[in-house]
Design goal:
By secondary structure, the chain is of the alpha/beta class. 34% of the residues lie in helices and 21% in strands. A hairpin with a 4-residue loop joins strand 3 (58-63) and strand 4. Bound molecules: ligand BES, manganese (II) ion and zinc ion (ZN).
């Protein structure tokens, strides 16, 4: 799909389709110079109540005289307008265009004084790309989705005049959305199609294609290195664990080193502490963190991010078997610290522990891990907001800001020192988990045990957000690709 920018379009294009966005209420046309040539039409539609501008309301109109479509998309009330809403409206536009089987369209970036023009443009473009994506499936016949949409041209010379390089903004936003789609595709793959070895192979193929250095530790290497956390989690499965280290050497003056660590449990049955059958199928997306990291690494390369980025993916399948690790086991992690296993379903923190230890060997300025870590976080923040844990305030603010810009919600949760004692063990350096209270915090505190003093680290718990449980214009039910665009925005702003 080709995304273009036209700086000459002032009164709007004609053929074959134009998309405009309208807010609800009496001020729909106020301060919207891009709508000048549609003013009469829009006024009539509003006056008759044929179109109200309600959030995600759509009205496709065909003008036979001009052989042109005008597609109205509602933004809802201006006061309620948020980055996710702008993004979903953008997605709605391409959903309508696709349903009309159109090949080409002109999308008017809405003049919204509430947001910087760059942000509105990015959100609209991202949404437009996501909305045009049909979900990959395994059906053998007929039902394979097709998309006719080929060229999208974005315009609104007036509003966008402050942007120095609109074409660059568009292509960056498009690439970010592409990476998010890639992460969704990966995370949606069933566990019998994507096991640790297969995912490691994907990373190796990507590295080969981009000529980036990549290292994969197989079970022998993991043993030799002493990565006891990852080995313990993986030992119950017939599909052996892997640790992937993918490096993007980009840099230059003032370049930072950022390590991204993604939880890659290709299937989380819970192990011997087996999960109930209800919802277990969803645990094929327990590698959403690793999928995000892998997709971000590709985008980092495409976007020529001026920093060194290390992508670490600990990959394992958590299964019960005669070889599985057990509650009561005491393991030695890559850090040398010993851990008393309490619950084999708290596997994510164990594989992350080893990856975080490894990450620090690269002396990164920042480490960010992203993981579908705790049901407790899902319960606390719901499915549209991820948990953010860090002791580094500037890093916290940078991540919050990045999330806000791209329309992903994060909320800070505390790394409370008072809870540290819950992890005390009689037999090992500490326990793997405590009781149910504060489950998301306890997991984060466990991870912090593997971070050396003065290392800047943030943990993103995406257990709630990694899956969309309701379809929306930006995507179907299933893996959401959450975190990808925030991480990319973060890397673009440090
Ligand atoms: N992968 C799960 C967390 C999860 C739950 C992700 C729901 C997405 C949706 C994780 O490995 C897990 O099982 N965590 C346990 C930890 C507990 C045993 C301490 C949990 O949250 O129940
Ligand atoms: Mn688990
Ligand atoms: Zn898990």
């Amino acid at each position: 799909m080709i995304f273009k920018y036209n700086s000459d379009l002032i009164n709007g294009p004609v053929k074959p389709a134009t998309v405009i966005f309208l807010t609800e209420g009496p001020n729909s046309l106020k301060d919207r110079p891009e709508l000048a040539s549609f003013r009469l039409t829009v006024q009539q539609l509003l006056a008759t109540g044929s179109f109200k501008g309600k959030y995600l309301e759509t009205l496709p109109l065909f003008f036979p005289d001009h052989d042109n479509w005008l597609i109205l998309v509602g933004l809802g009330e201006y006061e309620k307008l948020s980055p996710p809403r702008v993004m979903e409206a953008g997605a709605t536009s391409t959903q309508v265009l696709t349903s009309l089987a159109l090949r080409e369209a002109f999308i008017a970036i809405p003049s919204l004084p509430k947001f910087p023009a760059t942000q509105t443009m990015e959100l609209t473009v991202q949404g437009a790309r996501l909305g045009a994506e049909a979900r990959y499936n395994f059906k053998t016949q007929a039902d394979q989705p097709t998309n006719t949409l080929r060229v999208l041209t974005f315009w609104n010379a007036d509003y966008l005049s402050s942007i120095a390089k609109p074409k660059v903004v568009i292509s960056r936003a498009q690439m970010a959305a592409e990476a998010q789609i890639q992460a969704r595709r990966l995370a949606d793959l069933p566990a019998n199609h994507l096991d640790p070895t297969a995912m490691a192979e994907m990373a190796v193929n990507l590295a080969g294609r981009l000529k980036l250095p990549v290292t994969v530790w197989d079970e022998n290497q993991l043993e030799a290195e002493g990565a006891g956390g990852l080995l313990a989690v993986g030992q119950g499965s017939a599909r052996p664990p892997r640790m992937v280290i993918l490096e993007y050497p980009g840099g230059g003056r003032g370049a930072k080193t950022v390590a991204l660590v993604g939880k890659g449990v290709t299937f989380d049955s819970g192990g011997l502490c087996l999960k109930p059958a209800d919802g277990m199928a969803q645990m094929k997306t327990d590698m959403s963190g690793a999928a995000a990291v892998l997709s971000v690494m590709e985008a980092v390369y495409n976007l020529k991010i001026p920093h060194k980025v290390i992508g670490l993916m600990p990959l394992a399948e958590n299964m019960p078997s005669h070889k599985a690790y057990r509650p009561g086991d005491i393991i030695t992690t890559l850090s040398g610290q010993t851990v008393e296993i309490v619950n084999t379903d708290a596997e994510g923190r164990l594989i992350l522990a080893d990856a975080l230890t490894l990450a620090q060997r690269f002396q990164p300025d920042y480490i960010i891990d992203i993981a579908t870590l705790t049901g407790a976080c899902q319960v606390a923040l719901g499915e549209r907001c991820a948990g953010l844990f860090t002791d580094d305030e500037p890093l916290r603010n940078a991540i919050l800001r990045a999330g806000q810009l791209v329309g992903e919600n994060y909320w800070p949760l505390p790394l409370l020192n008072e809870y540290e004692e819950e992890l005390k063990s009689e037999l090992a350096d500490f326990k793997q988990a405590a009781g149910r209270p504060g489950g998301a915090i306890m997991a984060a505190l466990f991870l912090r045990r593997f971070i050396k003093p003065n290392v800047s680290w943030a943990h993103l718990d995406i257990a709630g957000t990694a899956r969309k449980n309701h379809k929306s214009p930006s995507g179907p039910e299933g893996a959401s690709g959450f975190g990808v665009v925030t991480l990319l925005k973060f890397l673009c702003t440090i």
